[in-house]
Specification:
mainly beta; Phosphatidylethanolamine-binding Protein; 7-stranded mixed β-sheet; 3-stranded antiparallel β-sheet; 2 helices; 10 strands; 26% strand
Length: 192
Amino acid sequence: MRRLACVLAVALVLPALASCGGSKSGSGMNQSNISGLGRPSGGPATMRLQSAAFADRVRLPARFTCDGKGVSPPLAWTAAPRGTQSLVVLLEDLDAPGGTFLHWSVYAIPKNTRKLSQGSIPSHAARGRNSFGKLGYGPPCPPKGDRPHRYVFSVYAVPHRAAFGPGADVTAVGRLAATALAKGVLTARYSR
């Protein structure tokens, strides 16, 4: 219980201002890497996360960025462990000029869901605010000339449903992800 209180305290003091340089949307909010927050003792189990559109550790296709249609990619994962009540999906840029930048958060995904189709989320899921301050998917758009940025897609199997509605900020979603029973990661790179 004391560890959970510490995790929640850390999630509440995340840095507040910065931008994902080179974006068409202006400034956003700098957030600590959600996937780096503390987990229940022993850490989460592993889920396999993949995409039919790209492999792990390769270049993200332009259609999922600001240089293309800017739609979210298709994602699929292995079954969540027993005790899962909902799923959370995040996309973070680990190399943004102001620090880790949240491009996408989806939560309250039904526990038996095994995929997200390109450009869509399940009807009962909720979209959170990204670091641009907008709902939904904010396509990767690193500054021109930067070395390739690492874009980390993560799926979290959590033991409860979100206690908040659509439009939650990164702090609320971070607290939810911090309770993960299992996690899957898929990393892509992109530069302009």
